Amino acid sequence: MGNVLILTEHQNGHLKKVSFELASKASELASHMGGEVQAVVIGSHVAGVSDLGKYGVKKIFTLFEASLEKYNTENYAAILSHIIQEHRPDIVLAVAGPMGKDLLPRVAARLKTGLMTDCTDLKMEGGKLVATRPIYAGKAFVDVKIPESTPQMATIRPNSFPIHERGGGAQVIPVVIPLGETRARMKEVVQGAHQGVDLTEAEVVVAGGRSLKSAENFKLLEELANVLGGAVGASRAAVDSGYVSHDIQVGQTGKTVNPKLYIACGISGAIQHLAGMRTSKVIVAINKDPEAPIFKKADYGIVEDLFRVVPLLTKELKKVLAE
Amino acid sequence: MKIGVLIKQVPDTATNIKIAANGAGIDPTGIKYVVSPYDEIAIEEGLKTKEKVGGEVVVVSLGPVRCVEAIRTGLAMGADKGIHIDDAGVVVDSYLTARILASVLEKENFDILFVGKQAADNDCAQVGPMVAEFLGWPQVTVVEKIELNEARSGAVVARRVGGGAKEIYDVSLPAVIAVEKGLNNPRYASLPGIMKAKSKPLTTLKAADLVGGEKARVEVTHYRLPPERPEGRILKGEAEQVVPELVRLLREEAKVI
Ligand SMILES: Cc1cc2nc3c(=O)[nH]c(=O)nc-3n(C[C@H](O)[C@H](O)[C@H](O)COP(=O)(O)OP(=O)(O)OC[C@H]3O[C@@H](n4cnc5c(N)ncnc54)[C@H](O)[C@@H]3O)c2cc1C
Ligand SMILES: Nc1ncnc2c1ncn2[C@@H]1O[C@H](COP(=O)(O)O)[C@@H](O)[C@H]1O
Fold it and tell me: Over the stretch A194-218, which tens digit does the pLDDT of each residue have?
């Protein structure tokens, strides 16, 4: 008893970093309960799953089948529910991303238990999982728990937990579960214009606003983001002006990001924009207007024309990071 | 087609949220309530679907008496009927909300159900998939495009996922479709629409009669405001000096690069 089960995520046949974040946090929780961490990997083929052992996972249930290459709510829900019912973990954790947000509520309903979504912190209190999650787009926070039903389920916002290597190995256990016909079938994935680092998982986000004035000028931000291995984001005003697509809008009606470093370039800092980035660990604001509200939220501010500062910053970082 | 739309009434997104003095909720003083932004998109899609294929649009909302206003907004936009489930005396979470809604929806025989991607108050993004599970229907969430087939027996939908990518699904109906921004631009209620809404049918049910011995699974133990960020630092001087100083601070003080 006291086991924690995590649903891993992978891309292009490799586990994503966020899977190791989940594993690291799960092993901390499991050690409080004297239990172990178990992981589920669903897909067609994923290399290096036993790496999860380094982060404290003891058992890895794998389901590799060509038909599972593409995500499918009904099949994935059947698999996850089956594994949970068989192994009865106390806690189930997944990533609050496109898959976890679609899948976990369905599984929670099937198992007649509760789900805490998009959590930014987890701790054990009196033998129960207590999760902290933002509400009102980050304008307030709540602590929540699932006092009676099991398992206690939660989805975790990427970049919420550090990765800890603990050493140790895991047993890989292939699982076979008969799968039926499904009524929602993914036919294809159409890739977007912004490949590379996913905005919601990026450790660094460089965001631009209306002040960028054109799609062309967003290249300046891309260059800066590339030097830092980050992703580009935008305010709604930049999206509405047609400079960039809605896919990279940050804010209440866009994406929520949780990077280590958020660089806001020519963004005023409207409440709806702050909603999408306020949990960033460090915020840098570059804005001509010393009165811009973004400076109230920024750790470091530069009152200057972004068209002067951004290229200089890219150049300086290139130099410093090459050292 | 019989089209259902689930809507929730939430504080306007520009509201400054305050915590109630007893810490057990948010302070409702001065809050202006609106239809949750994604649910407006759900209503619009319901109306557009009806305009294309005929049928009726029913808006359903669970919540206190004030959410009748939200239902009236939906009716004023063009929906045909409203169902209000009064939550007096019942503490709900996403699970219980979905259970109660499903018990009502089961009897309505909808062909399609539009819901918001998430409600703009608790941001849970759970009720759609949970309702789909309780009804035994398929679901597609974060939908930014939907095209019904000729026979109205299914649809091709695009679901937005990370990095600007889209997943394209074939889904058979009935299904739950959770809508994302970009799907459409919700219309405003017209003055005649607002007048007409007053005489459209609105049924009121009581959540307490529908819980069927179930209760909320998730309990909120504490509300608080986000931690204040310490006063930031404005770096002063010429850009040529300030930029290297910023890079140094990011490395040595903040340790983020
Ligand atoms: C229901 C609703 C939902 C919303 N959702 C979102 C959302 O998800 N995300 C979002 O971002 N917004 C959202 N908004 C919009 C939000 O209220 C703001 O209008 C928007 O964030 C402003 O974008 P901006 O900062 O780019 O533009 P502006 O407010 O116009 O600010 C531009 C800033 O750039 C500065 N500037 C100009 N030129 C330069 C220069 N050369 N160098 C440096 N600085 C310069 C100016 O001083 C100014 O501060 C929403 C609004 C509503 C009502
Ligand atoms: N109380 C409610 N009444 C009607 N619909 C709701 C209610 N709560 C949530 N919904 C629907 O479910 C969606 C997701 O809500 P949530 O899971 O709370 O984020 C909303 O956008 C609504 O469409």
Answer: 567 889 889 999 999 999 999 999 9
Q: Evaluate the omega torsion of the peptide bond into residue B174 and state whether it is cis, within 30 degrees of 0.
A: yes
Regions of chain A with pLDDT less than 50? none
**Angle made by CA atoms B253, A226, A207, in degrees to the nearest 5:** 70
Instruction: Determine, for residues B120 and A135 on separate chains, whether the beta-carbon distance falls below 8 Å.
Output: no
Atom 52 of ligand 1, residue of closest alpha carbon: A272
pLDDT at position B206 over 90: yes
Q: In degrees, to the nearest 5, what angle opens at C-alpha A129 toward C-alphas A123 and A134?
A: 70
Question: How far, rounded to the nearest angstrom, does the alpha carbon of residue A102 sit from its chain's CA centroid?
Answer: 14
CATH of the domain at A267: 3.40.50.1220
For chain A, the domain total comes to 2
State the complex-level ipTM: 0.91
List of domains in chain B: 2-209 (3.40.50.620)
Q: How far is CA B119 from CA A103, A184, A228, B10, B248, in A?
A: 17, 24, 34, 8, 41
Amino acid in position B59: V
Q: Which helix (H) or strand (E) holds A190?
A: strand A184-190
* Ligand with an atom nearest the CA of residue A105: 2
